[in-house]
C-alpha cells in the first residue's frame, strides 16, 4: 500500500492497525527547526512492518531536509523512540536515513502545507517551486 500525500509517495506496508499506530507516532516527532512533524513534512519515505504481529520488525526509510542537517543523528533516534513507544511489542525498529530521492518541499503533505501557510503567512511550497523554476528554468 502507498499513500499519495501532496507530491510525495509514502510506502506503507504491513498490517493496517500497526501502520496506523506508527503513523500517529510519527506525527508526534518534530524537526526542532521546523514546526511541522516529520510525517507531514514529507521526511518519511517508507514504513514496512514484517514478521508476526506479536513481534513485528519495523523498517523506516526517511530523509532530512538537508544533508548537513544539524539533527541528522537525533531526528532518526526520535523516530525510533516514538515507534518503540507506540509499538512496544516490536522485536526490532530500524530507521535508515536516505538522500535518494532528495527531500524537497513538494513532499510536504497537504496538512503540513496548510500549517506552514498559517505559520509563515505564505505558501512555502509554491514559493520554492517558483524559485526553482527561476533558477533552473522549466
Find the CATH topology.
GMP Synthetase, Chain A, domain 3
SSE series: EEHEEHEHH
Q: Please describe the biggest sheet, giving its number of strands, its sense, and whether it closes into a barrel.
A: 5 strands, mixed
Q: Cα distance, first to last residue? A: 32 Å
Assign the CATH superfamily. Answer: Fe-S cluster assembly (FSCA)
Approximate strand percentage: 15-25%
Given helix and strand content, the structural type is alpha/beta
CATH architectural designation: 2-Layer Sandwich
Helix content: 25-40%
Summarize model confidence as the mean pLDDT.
91
Which residues form runs of ≥5 with pLDDT under 50? none
What is the domain tally? 1
Q: Helix count?
A: 4
- What is the C-alpha radius of gyration, as a whole number of Å? 15 Å
Q: Give me the count of strands.
A: 5
| Molecular shape | elongated
Mind telling me the CATH class? Answer: Alpha Beta
Strand order of the largest sheet: 1-2-3-4-5
Protein name: MIP18 family-like domain-containing protein
Organism: Aeropyrum pernix (strain ATCC 700893 / DSM 11879 / JCM 9820 / NBRC 100138 / K1)
Domain MIP18 family-like: 20-97
Description of the molecule:
- The protein has 138 residues and is an alpha/beta fold.
- The chain has a single domain (2-136), classed as GMP Synthetase, Chain A, domain 3, CATH 3.30.300.130.
- The chain is built from 4 helices and 5 strands, in the order E-E-H-E-E-H-E-H-H.
- It has helices spanning 16-26, 74-86, 110-120, 124-136, and strands at 2-5, 8-13, 44-50, 57-62, 92-97.
- Strands 1-2-3-4-5 form a 5-stranded mixed beta sheet, with helices on one face.
- Strand 1 (2-5) and strand 2 (8-13) form a beta hairpin.
- Helix 1 (16-26) crosses helix 2 (74-86).
- The protein is elongated, with a radius of gyration of 15 Å.
Amino acid at each position: 500500500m502507498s499513500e499519495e500525500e501532496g507530491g510525495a509517495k509514502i510506502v506503507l506496508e504491513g498490517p493496517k492497525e500497526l501502520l496506523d499506530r506508527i503513523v500517529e507516532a510519527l506525527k508526534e516527532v518534530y524537526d526542532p527547526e521546523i514546526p511541522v512533524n516529520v510525517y507531514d513534512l514529507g521526511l518519511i519515505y517508507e514504513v514496512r512492518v514484517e514478521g508476526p504481529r506479536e513481534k513485528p520488525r519495523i523498517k523506516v526509510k526517511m530523509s532530512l531536509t538537508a544533508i548537513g542537517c544539524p539533527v541528522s543523528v537525533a531526528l532518526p533516534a526520535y523516530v525510533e523512540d516514538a515507534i518503540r513507544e507506540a509499538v512496544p511489542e516490536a522485536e526490532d525498529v530500524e530507521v535508515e536515513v536516505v538522500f535518494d530521492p532528495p527531500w524537497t518541499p513538494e513532499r510536504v503533505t497537504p496538512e503540513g502545507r496548510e500549517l506552514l501557510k498559517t505559520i509563515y503567512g505564505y505558501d512555502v511550497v509554491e514559493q520554492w517551486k517558483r524559485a526553482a523554476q527561476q533558477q533552473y528554468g522549466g
